[in-house]
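User: Can you predict the 3D structure of GNAT family N-acetyltransferase? Sequence below.
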Amino acid sequence: MIETARLVMRSWRDEDVAPFQAICSDPDVMATLGPPLDRDETAALIGRVRAIEAEHGHTFWALERKEDARLIGWCGVIRGSAGPVAGKAELGWRLARDAWGAGYASEAARGAADWALAHLPDDDLWAITWEGNVRSRAVMERLGMAYRAGLDFDHPKLAAGDPLRRHVTYSMARTKAAA
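Assistant: Sure. Here are the predicted structure tokens for GNAT family N-acetyltransferase:
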């Protein structure tokens, strides 16, 4: 479990499926991520991130707000699976629409980055997003991550012609994160 001033990142529970499905079915949330997910798709996604945690000891954890114990999304670090971040420590987050604009994504991502730097051997932390995702790109920049223009790529899990296919890459060196 990772705690920040206002948030907790923790392992997933069975009862998280319904609230996370509400997030993953919101067209505003999914506008930069892909099509909205139904309950079965959300349960399968949670199953995949649980398996990642079981294998690696870290994942995109359930993100809970301390003040009301509400699940507001996910945040954490996985081993990247696509493009220039494949096999690298990749930070990621997804938040409920009504949790946007309160600094939760930056706070959670900083907590996950600090955890990764304390527990993983990687020299760099990485993040990717669809090129038009200005909110996530702003979080990456607030963390001190640098845009790596030469590492833009077409996400292999998205079909040719998918408007979300083009992705950008950001990274932060361990020495930059410690500064």
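The chain has a mean pLDDT of 94. The domain at 2-178 is CATH 3.40.630.30 (Aminopeptidase).
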